[in-house]
Amino acid sequence: MSSVVLHQWEISPFCQKVARMLQFKGIPYQTVNYNGVLGAKVPMLSKAGKVPVLDIDGKRIQDSTRIARYLDEAYPDLPLLYPGDPMQKAYVELWEDWADELLYFYEIHFRVSDAEALDHAVAISAEGRPKHELVLMKPLLKSALTLQLKMQGTGRMAKADIEAEFIRHLERIELVLGQTGWLVGESKTLADIAVGSQLLEIVRTSKVWGAKIKSYPHIAQWIGLL
């Protein structure tokens, strides 16, 4: 297997999702971080202008879902991210899409609505860079994330309503995990990696909501296995 390189913004749950996919399949890889002002180089990596970007087998692949599909197609003898059963695969795809397109915005909300969580996020996003970049990163990060929330719609909702709905999502996840310990079937799939990567970013930066997530016993056990 040729050298595998993950180009990432370290605080991105989508980049962490790809890292966990590679670990799940047992594919060794290296990372290149675009923290701090190095983020200005990200648009040059691909036409989409976003990370994650994976260099593998002489190819450059952008977008976590496209990377997941490629990994299973190129390495079918390694543990599969998508189950072979068509119905289970459909459920995995639904969970993944839900995590990427909806759950992500709750994670963003908790970063910008809690000053301590925002400070943690800024520290991670500027890790390995000169200290003065922390001063630059905080207003830029908050502004960019707030704009994302408003454009998507979550940023126009009342804070209490957002948080009440998030708790409902946690209760649903807890209920599903109570069946087998996994979101689909009886073993880890991309559904677990996608949903877990979003929740683990909340755990990493928000003490209050990280503790809330871990207060659900099935979720707490599950994220420890991701």
UniProtKB/TrEMBL annotation:
<dbReference type="Pfam" id="PF14497">
    <property type="entry name" value="GST_C_3"/>
</dbReference>
<dbReference type="InterPro" id="IPR010987">
    <property type="entry name" value="Glutathione-S-Trfase_C-like"/>
</dbReference>
<dbReference type="InterPro" id="IPR036249">
    <property type="entry name" value="Thioredoxin-like_sf"/>
</dbReference>
<feature type="domain" description="GST N-terminal">
    <location>
        <begin position="2"/>
        <end position="79"/>
    </location>
</feature>
<dbReference type="InterPro" id="IPR004046">
    <property type="entry name" value="GST_C"/>
</dbReference>
<dbReference type="InterPro" id="IPR004045">
    <property type="entry name" value="Glutathione_S-Trfase_N"/>
</dbReference>
<feature type="domain" description="GST C-terminal">
    <location>
        <begin position="85"/>
        <end position="226"/>
    </location>
</feature>
<dbReference type="InterPro" id="IPR040079">
    <property type="entry name" value="Glutathione_S-Trfase"/>
</dbReference>
<protein>
    <submittedName>
        <fullName>Glutathione S-transferase family protein</fullName>
    </submittedName>
</protein>
<dbReference type="InterPro" id="IPR050983">
    <property type="entry name" value="GST_Omega/HSP26"/>
</dbReference>
<dbReference type="Pfam" id="PF13417">
    <property type="entry name" value="GST_N_3"/>
</dbReference>
<dbReference type="InterPro" id="IPR036282">
    <property type="entry name" value="Glutathione-S-Trfase_C_sf"/>
</dbReference>
